[in-house]
Amino acid sequence: MAFAQSANILVEPNLALYEATVAGESEATKQELAQFRIADNLDIKHWADLAMGRKSKLSLTDDELSTIPKRSAEIDFEMRLRRWVRNYIILLKLAELELKGLNRNRQITELVTWMYQDFIIGGPALMFAIHYLAPNSERSGLLKNLRSADRERALRGIRNASWDVTWLSEWIRRAGEQKQTNTLTLLCSLDRKLIHLARMLAGNLTDEEFRREGFMKILEPWGAKQAGQIVELLEGFFKDNPSRQIHRTAEVDLDQITQAGEKFVKDWQV
């Protein structure tokens, strides 16, 4: 905190708090946010004293606490984030294809076709799926407990992975605005799998460069032959098609498609 404040670094905790609310209660999340705002708005001398060992704990006066922003009650952390919902739906579909026992080539083909034709192309979620399905990837821990006898644990694993994808998509969005805003956006996590996925997406590539270089980097665990086949498949979807869902008058019912995906995962038997 001493370094962050001296370097004018802003910490954005909201996504972590939305994720925490899924496993806990909204009131507890608001309390965590209140505590964070106290920590983030303290005078730097408090953190410097702790860092240098001059103090062993924070000691604050009522006057110092009165200057802390008090806006946590305004945020509804139980609200579902639309980006997370879309990522969750895509990963539910990935889980369905995996649990059906299809071979990996067919899984990626059916997933990409469905995303393009009947849903949306979610870049980070697609990257996650390509990495997860690769024959030589380190996929352990990406979809936790997918085949557990406790089907609720399987759903929790998919939700957890959906948060990872949401973190990545938000980081990519903010990183894309760095030049315009003259800022740097850092993704901070102790999750090594998440950081590994982020590094696969890192780089200042144009759309064309990403198609040529970025995809091949992500596809390396597939091997050259299968990677080439997947690139050919994906390139076929870079062109628009008037029959796609995004051009239809009726919108996708996100609740309905989520419930159907969850039902399949819950009903699957070991």
Q: What's the quick description here?
A:
With 270 residues, the chain is an all-alpha fold. It is 61% helix and 0% strand.
Record the SSE blueprint.
Elements: H1 2-6, H2 14-23, H3 26-41, H4 44-51, H5 62-65, H6 82-99, H7 104-118, H8 123-133, H9 151-175, H10 178-181, H11 192-201, H12 207-219, H13 224-235, H14 254-267
Commentary on this structure:
There is one protein chain. This protein is mainly α and 270 residues long. Helices cover 61% and strands 0% of the residues. The protein has two domains: 2-74, no CATH class; 82-267, no CATH class. Helix 9 (151-175) packs across helix 11. The longest helix has 25 residues, at 151-175. The model has no long low-confidence stretch (mean pLDDT 85).
User: How confident overall, as mean pLDDT?
Assistant: 85
In N-to-C order, the SSE pattern is: HHHHHHHHHHHHHH
Total DSSP E strands: 0
Number of domains: 2
Looking at the structure, what is the overall shape?
elongated
Structural class: mainly alpha
Rg of Cα set = 22 Å
Portion of residues in helices?
Answer: 55-70%
- Percent strand equals under 5%
Distance between the termini: 47 Å
The helix tally amounts to 14
**How would a textbook summarize the main sheet?**
none
Poorly predicted runs of 5 or more residues: none
